[in-house]
Here is the input.
Amino acid sequence: MKFPSLPVTSHQGATLNFDRLQQELNVPWKPVLALGYEHGWKELEAGRLPEYRKDILGNVELQGIVSAGESGKSAFTLPVGYRPLTVRKAFIVQANGNTGIITVESTGVVVPLNLGGEVTVYTYLDAVRFSVT
Here is the structure.
């Protein structure tokens, strides 16, 4: 899922496109695999790799697909600096063709929950975006 990029106009009348600016600054994605998976979660074979990054405005974004884990149990933990400051964040996502919820705790724990069953074949991370500033 790609977030819409709205042009931003400065007080001097210059217009910036957030996606283009971020692309030009080359904000890199980091693999979730390096963080380690928990409770049976893993990368979807031949799928889009789970990744995370912090954008130029201080928002953390996730993308990719995790699979085969226990619904409602932690999939991985984001490192310090990539965690919500105080409250749990929840996001509506697609899981096994059903509705799912991903929560991100202030401890960095990422928990996918498939509302359609106990075992999740796949869960999209693309809707997850939150501020850490």
